[in-house]
Amino acid sequence: MSGKTPMTPSDAARIQAAEAKQGGGGVEKGGFAARAQAAAAQNVASGKTSPGTQGGVKK
């Protein structure tokens, strides 16, 4: 995402779903999906995006 567009909860959910599909239903602790979810939560907490935002900056 190169720092220009903040990670959103919907982005993180898509990443987690793809990783779970590839990994037989589970995701790796501390893996990319977990880091994406943490980044999305931090962006929501800091106001960079909202919980319902899909793929972009909060308007």
UniProtKB/TrEMBL annotation:
<feature type="compositionally biased region" description="Low complexity">
    <location>
        <begin position="30"/>
        <end position="42"/>
    </location>
</feature>
<protein>
    <submittedName>
        <fullName>Seed maturation family</fullName>
    </submittedName>
</protein>
<dbReference type="InterPro" id="IPR007011">
    <property type="entry name" value="LEA_SMP_dom"/>
</dbReference>
<dbReference type="Pfam" id="PF04927">
    <property type="entry name" value="SMP"/>
</dbReference>
<feature type="domain" description="SMP">
    <location>
        <begin position="3"/>
        <end position="44"/>
    </location>
</feature>
<feature type="region of interest" description="Disordered">
    <location>
        <begin position="1"/>
        <end position="59"/>
    </location>
</feature>
<feature type="compositionally biased region" description="Polar residues">
    <location>
        <begin position="43"/>
        <end position="52"/>
    </location>
</feature>
